[in-house]
Amino acid sequence: MPHLARLSKARRSPITKTKSITANLRRSLHRGIRPGRGRLGDSLFAAAAFLAAAGIIALMALMVYKLMQQAMPAVEAFGAGFVTSTEWDPVNNNFGALPFIYGTVISSLLALLMAVPLSLGIAIYLSQFAPSWLRSPLGLVVELLAAIPSVVYGLWGIFVLAPFLGKTVEPFISGHLGGIPVFRGPVYGVGLFAASVVLAIMIIPTISAISRETMRNVSRDQKEAAQALGATPWETVKMAVLPLARPGIIGAVILGLGRALGETMAVTMLIGNSPKISASIFAPAYSIASVIASEFAEVTEGRHMAALIEMALILLVITLALNLLARLLVQKTGSRATKAKARP
Amino acid sequence: MAGHVTTSSLSASFGDIQAIDDVTVEIPANKVTAIIGPSGCGKSTFLRCLNRMHELVPGAKISGEVVWDGKNIYGPGMDATEVRRGIGMVFQKPNPFPLMSVEENVSAGIRLTGGRMSKAMVAEIVEHSLRLAALWDEVKNKLHKPGGGLSGGQQQRLCIARALAVQPDIILMDEPCSALDPASTQKIEDTIDKLKQNFTIVIVTHNMQQAARVSDSTGFMLAREMGDPGRMIEYGPTNKIFTMPDRKETENYITGRFG
Amino acid sequence: MSEYVQTPEEEGGNTMMPAPPALPGAVPAAGAHGGHQPERGPDTGGGLYRQSNLRRRSRNIRSRLAHALCALSTVIAMVPLALILFYVIYQGAGALNFSFLTSLPKPVGESGGGMGNAIAGSLILIGIAAVIGVPFGVLAGTHLAEYRSPRLSWIVRLLSDTLSGVPSIIVGVFVYTLLVLTFKQFSAIAGGVALGILMLPTVARTTEDMMRMVPDTLREASLALGIPRWRTITSVVIKTAGGGIMTGVMLALARIAGETAPLLFTALSSRTWPMGLDKPVASLPVQIYTYAISPFDAWHKQAWAGSLVLVLMVLLLSIGSKLYFGRKMQRAR
Hints:
The complex is a heterotrimer. Chain A is built from twelve helices and two strands; from the N terminus they run αααββααααααααα. By secondary structure, chain A is mainly alpha-helical. Chain A has a domain at 103-292 and 315-342: Orthogonal Bundle (MetI-like fold), CATH 1.10.3720.10. Chain A has a two-stranded antiparallel sheet with strand order 1-2. The radius of gyration of chain A is 31 Å and the shape is flat. The two termini of chain A are 52 Å apart. Chain B is α/β, with parallel strands linked by helices. In chain B, 35% of the residues lie in helices and 25% in strands. Chain B contains ten helices and ten strands. Chain B has helices spanning 43-49, 80-86, 102-112, 119-132, 136-139, 152-165, 182-195, 208-214, 238-243, 248-254; strands at residues 5-14, 17-27, 32-36, 60-68, 71-72, 87-90, 170-174, 200-204, 217-223, 230-237. In chain B, the strands form two sheets. Chain B has a six-stranded mixed β-sheet, with helices on both faces. A four-stranded antiparallel β-sheet of chain B has the order 2-1-4-5, covered by helices on one side. By secondary structure, chain C is an all-alpha fold. Chain C has a domain at 102-332: MetI-like fold (Orthogonal Bundle), CATH 1.10.3720.10. Chain C is built from twelve helices and no strands. Chains in contact: A-B, A-C, B-C. The interface between A and C is large, with 112 and 116 residues.
């Protein structure tokens, strides 16, 4: 390679200059560097990141511990009877959680009844049927429902939704189906039913977004196989999409249930706040979260507070269990869908 | 002279798969050393063992020694960061930091490795490094534009300038031209030729002509079969390897009779 | 990422296909498929794979109907959104003026007054939450993305997902037992801590996701320069993922800005300007709640005006973050 040698020789003179610059730079740069500095920074940073991650675990543990500790007076005073007693009598210091558990569970289940079909329709539409240019803007709009603060739902519920329900929907249902006990009795607008309607609106984004995600993850092969069999688009969804996405959809519904059980402000403003168990879904009721919201700040007596905290603990345990279950189901769908994708 | 490296019985593996086995070579200072061989022969792994980049892969294991100017870089008390500061690397695909400007890319190493420095000094190092990488004239008017906006060849020379700015003794290049067009490749080869005045260069390449053009000595690596670890089959002056290799395998590879 | 885009096909156009290929992965789907097979019997008369026109038409009609129902669900979900936005704007705009944003609430019966103190209080609470939640969340996310310790990461990931499902009122009760009971004082700090805890999961998980999107080649480039790992993470990885992390932070802020329940018995409320971080402080959501359940018409109007301010704040944060993220991603490419 003689030509290359000649080339480099021709450039020799400027290079000897850069050589001394490089040597000088090397000396002055490496003088400023103390070995081990990086290592100390590395250890400190890694420790901080570890502590933050472990902190999340500690935080959850502390939360459960603190609530248990503060709930003790009520646990000792009422034992297991706490969850079966219907009495809520702050004057005589007697507390039972059943009306609140009842209100929480029934309002959430009613909300699911309304929200699940709608959410699945949305999820199927947005992941399978909608033209692709429409998918992300529509998805964004549905997500906006989740961005509206709970207290604004409550305000709208009190002044717009509840009067509307009380004047039109509830009398209509009660008038036609009044023979069935759950629809019998006076209608007020505000009550269990109104709370459920608002809850349904509030959990639609949760359920539809997660179901949509799992449906979108279903492999293309499966769908093409169904289409090749001559399936119509709806049959393709039934054959290839829904069965594979099922655990994820169940997970989404459970997450929605978890949100509904713990939703506070809108329910507090709409459920009627009356600790009674009534047959009618139009009657006022109470929920765990709303009794805590309305009474906690004004409590003066220790056992009353302990009773409220015990209910918070019950709600925490239920939502933790539901969330763990749902996450595991959603994860399972993820791995199932990818497995199906990996298989040729 | 700084920048002299010897390896002895160097072996490396990923989990259960051994990538290279028993490599012993001596890399002279201020020379260009090329490592050639078919793909999968462990030449990149060998290169990454020279500045402790191999150990970043989960499950990586290394045995043997790499002695850099008298110190075993895997010896007790050696800090991987210190090693990498003295032994820089340029990668196969140009990888400038996307959100940093040209100037910030070049100065990243000196700004982030500790030690305070005046702005004037940083500017001087940036210019000097860009000049060494033959990029200064092309970018001197866009020092504050994002580094990702340059062409592929310019990006790779930016990466070379970035590696030069921390003033290493040795620069490792892992197939630096494989993603580039011939004109850019030519520029980088010119740069390499200039750089050896100040730096020791080890270049891994799958391009034999390139190895013949730029290097002073050449090592040929080969994994006998799929799944076998790569070994250094022959190592010596480039002229000799390309004209009268000692080993049959080397000759087969050089003459294109391989596989 | 492969976005599956369904090609519009002529529905039922290929039902005449003579020999359907085997459906390899469809075994689990057989149950759903079987649903309509028995009905097929009487219609298939001619050949095994042929169907009468009538049968095919009814299948297509059913498919169209399903399509329409799904589209209808989407429309139905938008009705409440439109209604809420309409009422908040219509009712709120009537009561909103400059003095509403800057003045203290007036006692019942006096006209005028505003939520200036509540807006200031909300900003303070959000600030405290960010000071706590952002560094904590980003560091936790960094651990998940950069330091791979599989078992710990699995638990942390699961718990932080679970934490995001814990009702916010319970976080309020927790902070009450932790801070308010201990210091015998409702305070802005307690409210901020509660909101900070609520931010944590969102910030941690987006940080993790965004850092994972940073290609390893950049980490290698940085480490090969002799830059220590922690500076590689802070100056290269976090910087590159910064736009995405910012989006997560803004989304988390949007979420906590509207939170009411965890503030009810931590920050409490106040009818004066904020007097210090260790004192109770008013906040926009709590003020809206108090006014909404009050019996006074004038307060109801103020609640609507407050809602308009709150909704604007929240929507600006969440829509803004998405736009910002889009721009940032374009730049990174």
